[in-house]
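Postdoc handover notes: sequence design on the structure in folder B. Input tokens:
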């Protein structure tokens, strides 16, 4: 019984955290009823350009090695990310620029997509939501019915009248 109370309190705290993160998230989103979803292009920074590339192409100094991707998300947590293109990006000004074609193979090898800088909620938010809902479903399924909520069957009511 105490484990169940602990889980409810823990999940309650997680729900409040989830609501706070969803409210404070800066990304634009749309809503359909109670579901908030976000789609479109998102820019993920990876690292600064190497100094030798900046010396060769001075226009890269205001940008970082980035990936521009299409994405679909729920409550600002990415569910699916696809069609990623290596670009020069600047998140603070929300701008992207093309990288010279001769640099792309080296940059793709040295800076793969799995090195992008993502916050916890963007990267693991969907898995966290699925885990919370799964825990809630398991807890709901394991609730023990009390004597008040247990249905009376015909056999129990007949045995009660026969003893009187």
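Designed sequence:
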């Amino acid at each position: 019984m105490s484990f169940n109370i602990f889980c409810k309190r823990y999940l309650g705290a997680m729900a409040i955290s989830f609501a706070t993160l969803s409210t404070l998230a800066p990304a634009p989103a749309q809503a359909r009823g109670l579901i908030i979803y976000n789609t479109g292009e998102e820019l993920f920074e990876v690292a600064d350009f190497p100094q030798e590339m900046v010396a060769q192409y001075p226009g890269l100094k205001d940008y970082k090695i980035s990936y521009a991707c299409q994405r679909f998300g729920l409550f600002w947590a990415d569910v699916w990310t696809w069609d990623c293109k290596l670009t020069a990006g600047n998140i603070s000004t929300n701008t992207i620029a093309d990288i010279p074609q001769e640099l792309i193979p080296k940059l793709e090898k040295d800076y793969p997509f799995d090195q992008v800088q993502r916050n916890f909620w963007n990267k693991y938010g969907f898995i966290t939501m699925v885990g919370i809902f799964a825990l809630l479903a398991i807890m709901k399924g394991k609730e023990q019915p009390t004597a008040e909520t247990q249905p009376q069957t015909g056999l129990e009511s007949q045995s009660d009248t026969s003893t009187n």
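Context for whoever picks this up: The CA atoms of residues 15 and 132 lie 9 Å apart. Don't rerun without checking with the PI first.
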